[in-house]
Amino acid sequence: MGVVALKWQGWLVALVFVAGLLVFAPLGLYVWAGGAPAARPAGSARDDVRISGCRIDPASRRVVASVEAVNRFPGPGAYVVTVEFRDHPTPDPGGGQASGPDRAAASGSAGAPDRAPGAAADRVADPVVAPAAGVSGSAAPAVMGPQVLVRIPGVRAGAAEHADVLGPVWPPATVPWCGIAAADFTLAP
Length: 189
Fold this sequence. Notes:
The structure is a single chain. By secondary structure, the protein is of the alpha+beta class. It contains three helices and six strands; from the N terminus they run ααβββαβββ. The chain has helices spanning 2-34, 45-48, 101-107; strands at 49-56, 62-70, 77-86, 147-155, 160-169, 177-187. The strands form two sheets. Strands 1-2-5 form a three-stranded antiparallel beta sheet. A hairpin with a 5-residue loop joins strand 1 (49-56) and strand 2 (62-70). The N and C termini lie far apart (62 Å).
């Protein structure tokens, strides 16, 4: 009788082990296959935002920058954008030239010959602003203009959202320059 009882105990252990595999193996595969949500590469949010317009509000004399964010990430989320306002574009660190559309206007090769260089439409910036102060290779720290944060929530994947950013009161007889100083993207919960 002792040998028969040990034989049944072995079968019972094997049966419990197989049942455990049948229950927990799919759960383990599900967790393993799901993994962590995809992480967005650092700095890629800056490529998704741009300044689409820079003007002075005639009533208040404040600068208004139009920001456009196009979500190129598979999930919905929100952008936090730092917009910078200046009275001149930022020079490139290497050549002392203007950046973006201002470079074309300064060299005389602007795409629209009917506009004067330096007109408000030519002063809309690339999503690139000068390196931060203290970057190696720059002789003097970059002069920063007034900056404003704007949050663009609820940007669906592949969709474009717009926001207007109200800047400082602008002095008369100067044309504003608007640019993206920084941008950050967070996934919607």
